[in-house]
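Supplementary Text 2. Reproducibility record for the structural model of the 98-residue chain.

All settings were left at their defaults, and a single model was retained for analysis rather than an ensemble. We include the record here because the model underlies the residue-level annotations in Supplementary Table 4.
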Amino acid sequence: MADSNLPYLLLGVGVGAALGVLLAPQSGEETRRELRDRANGGRDYVRRRGDELRERADEAVGRGRSAVGSQRDQLAAALEAGRRAYREATGPDADPAV
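Retained model, structure tokens:
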């Protein structure tokens, strides 16, 4: 299921659960307890999902930093090689005709 449909799924589950609880033949105390339990379950789900998303974001940031560091190192090596080549080409032994 696509992530963009997740809010609709959660809304449908919530509305269905609320209607089921409201239409169930039980006492008010039992209904309140069930609503409280469901709310706690939903809060726990949101907390878990948030932690998972935070971990995934941290991993993506780490991969990005690693890629940037690698590119920076490659660029520094290329610049140093270019400087060395320039020094060799323009050194005291360089042929002016070249």
